[in-house]
Amino acid sequence: EAGVAQSPRYKIIEKRQSVAFWCNPISGHATLYWYQQILGQGPKLLIQFQNNGVVDDSQLPKDRFSAERLKGVDSTLKIQPAKLEDSAVYLCASSKREQRAEKLFFGSGTQLSVL
Amino acid sequence: AQKVTQAQTEISVVEKEDVTLDCVYETRDTTYYLFWYKQPPSGELVFLIRRNSFDEQNEISGRYSWNFQKSTSSFNFTITASQVVDSAVYFCALSERGNAGNMLTFGGGTRLMVKP
Question: A73 to chain B, minimum CA–CA distance in Å?
Fold first, then answer.
């Protein structure tokens, strides 16, 4: 079974530029998550989708971050414009259902450096 | 207040030593789940175990064991006879009902270094 795919693996941009990350979850997984992991910290949820609808985006900085999950499969996370403090690893995860007991499957992440 | 606290930021042991990673959580939910994930240098978090709030039985899986104590809100993880391959960052996480849906909150992680 293929895992969660993310691209690119690394990205370096200057502040005020825009950037986009792509995620392809495990086939059949209805729930998709984007997490931000700042160096030395645990992952923090940015947004959660159930199929192509948003379940929770309360911690997403909506003035600069946006995400979509068209057709309930792949997802894209965008930052525009980027700030220095956005430097982090962006992790995508998926699960079969949106339930408390569900275990998440993670991709390897996109490491973003904002200069 | 932090919902999941992993007080040990970094632990270093010599191979074959036993090591315990601490996790303390905070929740008002009566039904919740606790998880441990491992993050090796490749970056991908890997699920290790899940425990629901009604099951306080300790669990053993090979060299790994988990001790869940509701009275102290702790869910500690012990590796027996540690190996170099156990070197990674370990995260404890709490899944509870949030404002909009189920929320999984991670602790800050404990970096474990096992030296040969």
Answer: 20
